[in-house]
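We treat protein structure as text, and this decision shapes the records that our systems exchange. Below, we set out a record of this kind in full and without editing:

***
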Amino acid sequence: MMNPLVEKLSRRDVVTDVEQAVLAELLDPPRAVAAGEDIVKNHSRPDHSTLLLSGLAARYVYLADGGRQITEIGVPGDFMDLHSLLMKQMDHGVLALTEVTVAGAPHGKLRAITEDHPHLTRLLWLDTIIDAAIHRQWLAAMGRRNGLGRFAHLIAELYLRLETVGLARDHVLELPLSQPVLGDALGLSAVHVNRLVAEMRASGMLKWTHPRVEILDWDRLVEVAEFDPTYLRLRKEAV
C-alpha cells in the first residue's frame, strides 16, 4: 500500500527500513472514492491528510460563476493535503478525477513523526515544497505560455511523475481524463483542448488513443513546453 509514496521519496533520498515501517504504520485502512466525488471538501477542517494510492485526483477551486480551475493533478504516491496538518481549514477542495483508492494519515501520527523522525519529516516537507514548485510552473504556464505550450508541459510533467512511481515507461502513459477536465487544468475550453490534441497528433509529437498517450517525439514536446524538470527534484540528494 505504501509503495508509490516510498518509491517517490526514494528518488530524492534514502528511505531507511525504519522510516518505511513508520510510514506503513501511519495510514488508516484504504478506501475507494468514485470519480467526481470529493476526497477533501473545500472549507473543511480535516483531522487527517490523505494519501493517493491509485487513480488520479485534483486540487480545485470553484469561482462564483460556477467555473472550476484545477490547480494540480495528483498521481499515486501524492499526499493531496499534507499541508492540512498546519493549514487547519482548507481553502480549496480535492476530488477524484478517476475512481481512486486513498488512505488517511491522522494528524496526530504525523505530528509524532515530526517529533521522533527528523529525516522523514524533512522528506515529507520536501514533498510539500515540490507541490509549491508545481503550482509555480502551472502559474507560469497559465500566464505566459500559449495553449499548445501549456498542454505539452502538462503531458511532460505527468509522464515524469507517473514514471517516478512506476506507472509510466518508454514514453507511454495512461491519461483517462476527459477533455473538459483537461480544459479545467489548462484554463481552456474542451473545444480548444480537442484542437490541441489534433495538432499534437498532426505534428508527430503524440499518438493519443484515449486513455493511452504515447510520446513519439520527447525532445520536440520538451521544446514546445519549455520544460525543465528541475522543479520535480528527481535527483537523489540528502535532505
Notes: Strands lie at 31-33, 38-40, 48-54, 57-62, 68-74, 93-96, 100-106, 172-174, 206-209, 212-215. The chain is about 45% helix and 20% strand. The chain has a mean pLDDT of 95.
